[in-house]
Amino acid sequence: MTNDAFDDSAQLRLEIAAAAARLVAQDGADYGSAKRKAARQVLGDAPNRPNILPDNDMIEEQVRQYNALFLADSQPARLFQLRTIALQVMEALQQFHPLLSGPVLNGTAGPHDEIYLQLFAESAKDIHIFLLNKNVVLDMSESPHFKGARYDAVETASFLWKNEGVHAAMYELDDMRGALKAKADGKVLRTDIAGLRSLLAASLAHGVPAAD
After folding, report:
1. Angle at the Cα of 199 (from 194 to 203), degrees rounded to 5?
2. Which end of the chain is more exposed for a tag (fewer CB within 10 A), N or C?
């Protein structure tokens, strides 16, 4: 393959990532469906090329750029609001070693985003009973295991907290091993209560207002 072909593929991948980021920011689409829809928008009826779809890190970076360009007046406050509510939920569920993941952690959360937690217990039933005893109305589903496809999907409890959607994936205690380890590139995929408090403190230090 020539250098021109490589350059063309890289440009198409960037265009797809930018289009996917708009779908994520404007419509709340998940990354998987956003990149597939964006590829159809960019490529039209042209045959798909191998490895043309952007990875999630590329889309995440494009979401950051979109937020900076079009949501600079509102997104930081929205993020602060979601992180504040996430901290409240995590403190209420502290006995289950809650970890925060997703856009509320990585800082890209916007108007359509919700809170994603990972909880750890001897049995998912313990978490289920705890929430029901708090009169929390649950919608149960399954989520892919964060360790990969070779692990079974995990039960996930979805509920409202202060009118914000929360999705709590329920793991076994052994799954905590290595959960807070950063990727090779230093990217943090989940954080605990202390880490979230630090993020909120840093936001306040920079004068980011809380949303109403």
Report:
1. 145
2. C
